[in-house]
């Protein structure tokens, strides 16, 4: 069975730990890597031999915002088809405005509790 590969781009260590725990609880074949910096993530994707199936992306990131990251990602043909899921503490309406220019981007507001996070991730993956 093929593994699903996820790249989480988030600079909040606590949120990353919670995300990894939620993924682990799904009992699916999922490999997750984390980048704490959107610019670093983009540079790593450009040279990667294995691309992720999903990128979970926080919008407020150092060096390169989430919107700038998506814009750069979509401009590179080899990377443009990766499914991006905006995963942020902004309200859903704010996220819709921030990602309005990008089709094929899913969004969800970081849930307030673990079971909701697990449920949301299970629905996406």
Automatic annotation (TrEMBL):
PROSITE patterns reported in the protein's UniProt record: RESPONSE_REGULATORY
Pfam families tied to this protein: Response_reg
Record flagged with keyword Transmembrane: no
Gene Ontology biological process terms from the UniProt entry: phosphorelay signal transduction system
Species for this entry: Flavobacterium bizetiae
Key words, A-Z: Phosphoprotein
The keyword Nucleotide-binding appears for this protein: no
Sequence ranges assigned to domain Response regulatory in this UniProt record: 5-125
Gene3D superfamilies hit by this protein: 3.40.50.2300
UniProt modified residues of type 4-aspartylphosphate: 58
Protein name, per record: Response regulatory domain-containing protein
